[in-house]
Amino acid sequence: MKSFLKSTFPLVVISILYTSCSTTQKIEALKPLPSDDAPMVYNTKTSFVNMPLQITLKEIENQLNKTLSGEIYNDSDLEDDKTEMKITKTGPIRLVEKNGKIETILPLKIWSKFKYGTDFMGLNDTREVNLNGTFTLLSDVKLSNWKMSTTSKIEDFYWVESPSILVAGRNVPITYIINPTLSIFKSKIAKKIDEAIVNSCDFKPYVLDVLEKMSTPFLTSEQYQTWFKLIPIEVYVTDAVLDKTQINMDLGLKCSMQTMVGLKPKNSFDKNAVQFKAVSKIPEKLTANVAAISTYESASQLISSNFQGKEFVSGSRKIVVQKVGLWQRDGKIIIALDMTGSINGTIYLSGIPNYNAVTKEIYFDQMDYVLDTKGLLTRTANWLLQGVILRKIQETCRYSIKQNLDEGKKSLLPYLNNFSPMKGVYVNGTMSDFEFEKVEVTNKAIIAFITTTGKMSVRIDGMD
């Protein structure tokens, strides 16, 4: 017997040492790598948002009246054509649609000084005339580089009072003199109106303001501290089409979308980085691909809440999970469970994150384990490793993103129901349910990619 013990004892010691070494090596291989401050990197999938844009003629009329006020024309050279002229806007400009074009009705006051007679022996004189009348212009409309531009022609003008001057005690009509003179300036006045429309109808700053408002991260769930963030990449626009009381064009927004758990993310919107491109056609559907980001800290907290107040019992033995840690190692998720009770120590579980489409939960598949406890080779440890308790613990290591998805959709809906990011801009739309696509693991977080479809429209009416 002594001889047997002498011969087997070294083998047992070696076996214990070997097993201990092997376990220690496994545990060291599972421990988290040193953290760094590098930004989170993952493969993004862009979203495309179709945003038909309607701009009312009334809105363009309002902007035009703000831009074009007071004196709009001044010719102070009498000698070139024997006429001086100042033209002042006397009332609001009115815009109406006429056969697919814009008709502009422009009330004006005209002061004119003209020379008449002949230069022979100084037989000439000058007279000043004050006139009140209205110009009617007809304009073709187009959109170029986000500026609405027009090509206008003066179709008609009429006088509120017939122009005349007093000569030798008689009122002499001078319409025949004024009208040919005005015809010389028709193209100049039309050009002035076109310039005013270009200056007052540059929509690019408004689009950028709307995008900046939409890019501001907003809270979608207070309970989970979940934030939604939109990052614009490119904006597309089609040609403008005049449709009775409004101008229609299609906008398309290429962007990335994120939901993040934890502190409010920074607004990284950079208006200089957004590219604008002209296209002939834009798809009608909104396709949103959202990256639902769960940092390891937030996922640890969610899983910890699953274990709170729970005891895992088997016969006379029981354990309680006190703390949960989570990190990534070699493409797998490591879950460290600190436990007390029949075993005092840590169990490390490793698995691949997956998604349950029915329960909308992130769970961990192909799970393996390693124990870090003084009783590693005892039967106490064996019943944990081989019994139902381990399976129950593994099943508890999951967290739901259903509420995140529901809250996310609920929080997004107000932004599609006459949402006004700025005065005079209104956003409306519809959205379908979120659908899961895939899960990715990064060095910073677990990312669930989800998709949804819908429609969106933007209306501009009543801006400052």
3D architecture notes:
By secondary structure, this protein is an alpha+beta fold. It has 2 domains: 40-57 and 203-464, Bactericidal permeability-increasing protein, domain 1, CATH 3.15.10.40; 70-200, Super Roll (Bactericidal permeability-increasing protein, domain 2), CATH 3.15.20.10. The chain contains 8 helices and 25 strands. The chain has helices spanning 2-30, 57-67, 175-200, 204-215, 296-307, 379-386, 388-396, 402-412, and strands spanning 47-56, 71-75, 83-89, 94-98, 101-117, 124-144, 147-159, 164-167, 170-173, 218-221, 226-237, 241-243, 246-261, 275-278, 286-295, 312-314, 317-329, 332-341, 345-356, 361-373, 399-400, 419-422, 425-431, 435-441, 445-460. The strands form 4 sheets. Strands 1, 10, 11, 12, 13, 14, 15, 22, 23, 24 and 25 form an 11-stranded mixed sheet that branches. Strands 2, 3, 4, 5, 6 and 7 form a 6-stranded antiparallel sheet that branches. Strand 5 and strand 6 (124-144) form a beta hairpin. Helix 2 (57-67) packs across helix 3. The chain is rod-shaped. 27% of the residues are buried. The model is unreliable at 1-24 (pLDDT under 50).
